[in-house]
Design a protein that fits this description.
Shape: globular
Order of helices and strands: EEEEEEEEE
Number of strands: 9
Distance between the termini: 23 Å
Number of helices: 0
Structural class: mainly beta
Largest sheet: 9 strands, antiparallel
């Protein structure tokens, strides 16, 4: 549990809200055996910023499920449901099925993650599918 912050860091005005925002963030999870099951929630309200831009009032609900196969390999599913309460069509929700692998890149552990899946909710004219590839450099103690 803690805060979530929104900072106006976009390099192009079309890519950001030009607002500062804050709100609560909570994650709950459990790890029975090889499973990781949980939910991330946060809510952001704008508190200042460009007066010619709409205020921010957004929610993120992110349930996730992961099964660790061993040797750094895992499969999972995650829904990244976001609501923009100031929009006509509030919800966008991709459901991503994933495969990830933690490997060594030199002496540094790196998590390679690939996910793809359908959009459960999307604004009119929005995407039908979402694909994502991530590389996460890990810094264990």
């Amino acid at each position: 549990m803690g805060p979530v912050l929104l900072l106006p860091t976009a390099t192009n005005n079309a890519l950001g809200a030009e607002k500062f925002g804050i709100g609560p963030s909570v994650v709950v999870l459990t790890q029975p055996g090889p499973w990781t099951v949980g939910l991330l929630f946060n809510q952001i309200w704008s508190v200042s910023g460009a007066t010619d831009r709409k205020d921010v009032n957004t929610t993120l609900l992110q349930p996730f499920l992961n099964y660790n196969l061993g040797h750094g390999l895992a499969v999972g599913a995650v829904m990244e449901a976001t609501a923009n309460w100031n929009a006509d069509q509030e919800w966008t929700a991709p459901l991503l099925f994933s495969v990830s692998k933690v490997a060594m890149l030199g002496k540094r552990p790196v998590n390679f993650w690939f996910g793809a899946g359908p959009m459960v909710a999307s604004p009119d004219g929005g995407a039908n599918w979402r694909f994502r590839f991530m590389t996460v450099f890990m810094f264990p103690r």
